[in-house]
Amino acid sequence: MITPNRMLREHAAGLRRHLQHCRAAQGRWFSAALVAERVHRQMAPRFVTTVAAAVLLLSAACGWI
């Protein structure tokens, strides 16, 4: 027979396993992945503009050297 107390314990155990999995997934590279995602979110819609700006910046830097 399934009692409410048993259901609560099983739910809490499942939640605990889930949180441990999430904590383990946030390892050493997690912050790097967040930064890469932010950069991608900013640059992807403006890809052509970003490439044009990079080409202009590099050509200006090469011209000044």
List the helices and strands and how they pair.
Blueprint: H1 4-25, H2 30-43, H3 47-64
Note down, in words, how this protein is organized.
With 65 residues, the chain is mainly α. It has one domain. Helices cover 83% and strands 0% of the residues. The protein contains three helices and no strands. The longest helix is centred in the N-terminal third of the chain and has 22 residues. The termini are far apart.
Strand content: under 5%
- The number of strands is 0
Inertia-based shape: rod-shaped
Oligomerization state of this entry?
single chain
Distance between the termini: 81 Å
- By DSSP (H or I, 4+ residues per run), the number of helices equals 3
Largest sheet: none
User: Mean pLDDT across all residues, rounded?
Assistant: 87
Helix content: over 70%
* Domain module tally: 1
Instruction: Sketch the topology as an H/E string, one letter per element.
Output: HHH
Question: What low-confidence regions span 5 or more consecutive residues with pLDDT below 50?
Answer: none
Strand pairing plus helix content: what structural class? mainly alpha
Q: What would you report as the Rg, rounded to the nearest angstrom? A: 24 Å
Keywords: Membrane, Transmembrane, Transmembrane helix
Transmembrane segments: 47-64
Provide a brief overview of the structure:
The protein has 65 residues and is mainly α. The protein has helices at residues 4-25, 30-43, 47-64.
